[in-house]
Structure formats: C-alpha cells, structure tokens
Amino acid sequence: AAVTYETWEKVGCPPEFDTSLGTSYETGEHVALDEVVYECIASPSARCSQAGWEPVTGQYWEEAWELLGSCSGTIAPTAAVTFETWDKIGCPAEFDISLGTSYEIGEHVALDEVVYECIALPSARCSQAGWEPGYGQYWMEAWTLKGSCSGTIAPTAAVTYETWEKVGCPPEFDTSLGTSYETGEHVALDEVVYECIASPSARCSQAGWEPVTGQYWEEAWELLGSCSGTIAPTAAVTFETWDKIGCPAEFDISLGTSYEIGEHVALDEVVYECIALPSARCSQAGWEPGYGQYWMEAWTLKGSCSGTIAPTAAVTYET
Fold first, then answer.
1. For residue 216, with 0-12 CB atoms within 10 Å meaning exposed, 13-18 middle and 19 or more buried, which class applies?
2. Cα angle: 16, vertex 21, 26; to 5 degrees
3. Residue 75 pLDDT grade (very low, low, confident, very high; cuts 50, 70, 90)
4. Which of 100-104, 204-208, 228-232, 254-258 has the lowest mean pLDDT?
5. CA 201 to CA 217: how far, in whole Å?
C-alpha cells in the first residue's frame, strides 16, 4: 500500500537518484526518488551506486540507504530574499560561474553580494553544474548561505596598529608571489606583520590574496601588528647557561644540513633550538641562528654552553 512519510528538514528535493547507476555517491550524500529523500549510509559507500542496493527498489537497499522523509519541488530559492549581513567587512572572492575554480569545504564565495560557504561532501560538488550557490538546482546540498555583503575585503583608510609581540620585522612578503607560505608563517609588508591563515595555505601565495592589498586578503592573512627594523641582535649579550652539560652539534654555516623543529645547535658557544614553520627555514640563508636577518623567526635562544656533549672520562663501577 502507498505510504505517507514525514517531510524532511529541508525545502525542496535533492538531486534525483541515478537509476542507471552511473553516478558515485559518498556516505552522507542525499538523493531523491519519487519525491522521497534517502541518505547514503553504506560502508563501503560504493554500495550506494550498485545494483541490488538502489534506494527502496534494491533487494538490500536498507543496508545502503536511510529514508529521511518526503520532499517536493527542487532545492532552489523561489523569491527575492533579504539576508542578514555576514560577520566580516566586505565580500569574499566572487564565485567562478565558469566552474573553473575548485573550492574546499569551509571556503567562502560571494555572488550578487550574498556570501556562501562550501559544505558539499564531496567538496567537488561546489564547482559542478547544478550545485552553483543560490541558483543551481541542488545548491543547498553544496552551500550554506552566510549573509549579505558589500564592497570588498580591503582596508579603506590608513590605520595605526598595535606593535606585535616580537622585536623587529619578519621577512618581507614576496610581492612577486614566487614564495610559498605555510599556515602560521609570518611576513611583513610596509612594517605591518601578517600571519598566513589560509585553508588551503596556497592562497597565501596567490594573486588576490596578498596581505592588505589583495581583494580577498582577509580570507588568507591575519594582521598581527606593526613592526620596525629587522629580527636581529643589536648588541653583544651575556646569556644564561642552558640546562645541559656541553654544547650540541655546531650549526652548519654552509647550510648543507637540514634541521627539524626542536633540534639544537651551537654557534659561538650559544645554543639555539629550531622553531621554524616550515622547518626548512632553519637551513636557509637569512635565517641562520644569531646573525641571519630573520633568525628569530626560525630559532629560539636557549643559553650559553661550553665543551661538548660527551663523556669526559671512563667510569669504573663496583661489581
């Protein structure tokens, strides 16, 4: 007999199930069949695209799908809507209607001054026809609406910033975009310090996401404060003795040795610990401990030392 189902929690129906079994479905993905919504729950998820596991008609369908309720229409807006303003100033990058840009889960775009966040599983849906934010037939499966926006993410006037917590400026941002930056890495631009926060971090090296000047820079960088000078010592200093006996391996001033985060070296009887992110900075020119222009971005000073870390005499033990 015909069965009446409760209505599912969203407005409109998700994409129709591909009865030809030519579409792959991921766990958590929704489909509709005869205006009833199903969620793929199969493990492995490949079951959701195989004969015998089709929703409701397949012999073993309840192993692969969960019935969520009835639906009608399509997932699409039916009238002009006024949205709340989203929580940032300016609009993020415009959605690429040519579908030539890949978007990651959590990434924001703007379309007609409305902001959307990619939530698709798999995230590739956010770049496919039919899932375009706001107007694609199934857009609410791929995007969540965050609010309205105006203008661009960029400063509108000169600003005085607090001084950041370190002495001197980190390396200058590479405006040629030839340098890759990792999440958590610091740069300076016009004596202002920025930290790469982009996901994916590649955004920090791409046009349009340059700190402060890029149209969408606040998606990729966080402003930490102003700085002056360079990260380098200005006078001879007397250091406390570090907590071990003897000096670790001497720093390789030829830069032919790779160092890992947490590794110790000595230079002129002073001990340094590699803290760079990425750790490759600890082996690069300009980041040499104690004298490289940006050394305090790559090393932390642990104290003075003398001698070497090695036993100095044989020891005789009682039997």
1. buried
2. 70
3. low
4. 228-232
5. 12
The whole-number pLDDT of residue 78 equals 42
Distance, CA of 38 to CA of 19 (rounded, Å): 14
Using a 10 angstrom Cβ sphere, with 0-12 exposed, 13-18 middle and 19 or more buried, the burial of residue 260 is: exposed
Closest CA to 206 of 185, 172, 171, 175: 175
Mean pLDDT of the chain: 84
* Count of CA atoms in the C-beta half-sphere (13 A) of 38: 27
| Cα–Cα distance, 289 to 70 (Å, whole number) | 65
CA-to-CA dists, residue 71 to 2, 28, 41, 51, 139, angstroms: 16, 17, 19, 24, 16
Lowest mean pLDDT across 50-54, 265-269, 309-313: 309-313
**Tokens 């006078």, residue?**
235
The CA-atom distances, in angstroms, between 54 and each of 33, 67, 120, 234 are 10, 12, 22, 72
pTM over 0.90: no
Give residue 239's identity as a one-letter amino acid code.
Answer: F
Judge residue 268's burial from the number of C-beta atoms within 10 Å of its C-beta, 0-12 exposed, 13-18 middle, 19 or more buried: exposed
Mean pLDDT of 20-31: 88
